[in-house]
Amino acid sequence: MSDLPESRRTAARRGSGARVVLWIVLAIVLLLLAAVVWVGVRGLLAKQHLERSVSLVDTLKSQITTGDSAAAKRTAQELEDNAGSARSLTGDPVWGAAQHTPFFGTNLRAVREIAVVVDDVATGAVRPVARVIGDLNTEAFAPKNGRIDLQPLVDAQPAVARATTTLRGADSAAAKIDTAATLSPVTAAVNRLRNALSSVSQQAVTANKVVQLAPAMLGHDEDRNYVLLFQNNAELRAGGGIPGAVALLQAKDGAISLGDQAAGSSFGPYDKPVLPLTPDTESLYGDITGRYMQDVNLTPRFDVTGALAREMWKQKFGQQVDGVLAIDPVTLSYILRATGAVQLATGDTLTSDNAVKLLLSDVYAKYPDPTVQDAFFASAASAVFDKVSSGGFDAKKLVTALTDGTREGRVRLWSADKAEQQRIAGTAVAGTLPTASKQTREFGVYLNDGTAAKMDYYLDKKISVGSSVCRKDGRPTSVVEVTLKNAAPADAATSLPRYVTGGGDFGTEPGKIKTLVAVYAPANAIYLGASQDGKAAGLQTTVDGDHPVAQLQTLLAPGQSTTFRVAFLGDAKYAKAGVQAESTPGVRQSKVEPLQFDCAKPVPVG
């Protein structure tokens, strides 16, 4: 037994216990400090890897665009290494525990989720595509001996499909990252990731559709035949221009050729529409949509146009084709940048600089006979097509030309195969009506010529669109503003060929331009009102399916212009979405501008 008094023994025990507690507290503090340092160091390293990953993505885009597939593969591997390192550095138990601490935990959790998303993209999207990128460069698809090698596309289908699925999942995961309490640098990083993934995932969906569709549609499995519509923008139709010339496009295992050709005017007129039209189509555009080949694209719905053109071709030639493709002279001018000049049978030289003017203006003075005009137009298209099919072009410039034409709504495609058409739907070539999503609400401005002549070569168009929440219920008000101008010379009535002005034969005074303008809103929007030049506008209000439509008619003398506005009420769930408008591609296609308006008077009427 100890000789120490009880009180001293008790004090000693208390002192010993206190020291133990102090040591425990000190140990905890040291552990916390170590954890902070550990997380901090790994966080800095992870940040470096993530920043490097972002810069590598930009490098990779550039290398793919320039066709440097060898460098792209190396960059893809480096991207995967950096993304994997960032994921590893933010995935250990210490980091995992730190994610649950107050304040900093939210930021650490967001950084971890960023690293996971970037790594998923690197391994599930970049890696599989990098393996096939060497066979998918633009030069690989230049025809050789008149034939495109489709096998690289077939081989790439699984990789591109996997990448598309990965990107779609990554886009969804990034959208779910909680940034409500994160520091501004972390929030900015998440937003940058979201924006990049939103754009890339949409592009991937389109690329996947091309890769999955192109081999079959170019005759890889069986021969394909398509009706090719050459649309003339000098006489506008909602879907482009009047189909002045029509041809058969044949595809056989990547070899493409033109077959029978005919003037659009040689089809019909038919006593009744060749296929049943919806009441909405008849109300807006008349039954002539289904009775004349020149009018099948009065509607902006290219699926309707395609089905009608296919049936008319069948009734004239007895041949059931697999689909319909449409292009215009402006697209041909873009393609000529890739092919260089072509010589026509008439002795004319067609270049990227003179194609639009020659095909849509000069031809009418040079060849007054409409039959010769149609033949000239078809001859020009055939000459360009022959040069492309023979491989006589710059592949990168051709891709750019087709991309520009598609972006401007000048290239349209419809397939009679339901499964193929489902894949085409929603792409830039589909020719579908405006849609609404949480990202974008689309409007449509579609023009149809009412002059029955070729005066639309001189029609200038400017479109603006804006949106604002003007109501307490949160529903957005959107306004579409359209300005049209007749830019023809003052003496157009006498200086232009009769075939261009119409000569007054169809009720329009020579030199003037009559236009039917249909403004479409997304499905289930509500029409609010319209004005023209600051006064109440007289127009037709109707629907095309679920889409509200406001249609009016303008008549402009040379030098005259008019501006009208149409307002629609949208759904509150799309209030934060951006707004955009598509329009009928004319000779000149200007950029859609943003529009500011007064909520009290979105469509001023004096």
What does this structure look like?
It is a single chain. α1 runs antiparallel to α2, α5 packs antiparallel against α6 and α9 runs antiparallel to α12. The protein is of the alpha+beta class and 606 residues long. The termini are far apart. The protein is globular, with a radius of gyration of 32 Å. The protein has 15 helices and 18 strands. The longest helix has 61 residues. The strands form four sheets. The chain has a six-stranded mixed beta sheet, with no helix packed on it.
Helix count from the secondary structure assignment: 15
Gross morphology is globular
Uncertain runs are: none
Query: What separation lies between the terminal Cα atoms?
Result: 109 Å
Using only C-alpha atoms, the radius of gyration works out to 32 Å
Please summarize the sheet with the most strands. 6 strands, mixed
Mean pLDDT score = 87
Strand order of the largest sheet: 13-12-16-10-9-18
Strand content: 15-25%
Structural class: alpha+beta
Helix content: 40-55%
Query: How many DSSP-defined strands?
Result: 18
Considering the chains and any ligands shown, give keywords for the structure:
606 residues, six-stranded mixed β-sheet, 21% strand, globular
